[in-house]
Specification:
With about 180 residues, the protein is mainly alpha-helical. The chain contains nine helices and no strands. Helix 3 runs parallel beside helix 5, helix 6 packs antiparallel against helix 7 and helix 7 runs antiparallel to helix 8.
Length: about 180
């Protein structure tokens, strides 16, 4: 029998942790199967959303892009405002990119940016969008997307150097003045 054979809340938890163990060993097929089976036990279980997401990720890693996209769609339809929604959209985009579907990748990136403008995943999406647009020959748009994917420079301090200490620019400026 075993913990994963029942239809109890404990069986759902067991499926989750067994699946996590399988994907940690990069056994994507087994992990996807385990997560999917766990998600079918109890649709209202607290781990159901994570089971669907993890199954989709495992399918994506296994190269089963259509099946992964279907589960990411399920995640986005059933839990549109969850903490994993941006991850689900990113997963769909990654599936399209892995299949060299540049038009779909660019479309999903645009949709992601409109829907999840504050997501910490946005830089990854912008980079994927830039690559897709470049492959489509839209070079100016690609450059703009890739520039948006770069980290923002830290703001400079608005203070003068403290007494007895100088920063590099004031030291260089002082040397230039002495040379005159």
């Amino acid at each position: 029998a075993g913990l994963t054979s029942g239809r109890t809340p404990l069986a759902v938890d067991a499926h989750y942790w067994l699946g996590m163990s399988q994907v940690a060993r990069e056994n994507w097929k087994a992990g996807a199967k385990t997560f999917s089976a766990g998600a079918e036990i109890d649709a209202s279980h607290r781990l159901n959303e994570s089971l669907v997401y993890q199954a989709a990720r495992a399918l994506l890693q296994d190269g089963q892009y259509l099946a992964a996209t279907e589960l990411f769609d399920r995640l986005l339809q059933k839990w549109p405002d969850s903490a994993l929604a941006d991850e689900g959209m990113l997963g769909k985009l990654q599936a399209a990119a892995a299949q060299d579907d540049h038009a779909e990748t660019a479309r999903l990136a645009k949709q992601f940016n409109a829907r999840f403008s504050e997501s910490p995943l946005r830089a990854d999406v912008e980079a994927a969008q830039g690559r897709a647009l470049a492959a489509l020959g839209k070079h100016a748009e690609a450059v703009a997307a890739l520039e948006r994917s770069l980290p923002k420079p830290a703001p400079k301090a608005q203070q003068e150097p403290t007494a007895g200490r100088t920063d590099a620019s004031s030291s260089i400026k002082r040397r230039a003045e002495l040379a005159l």
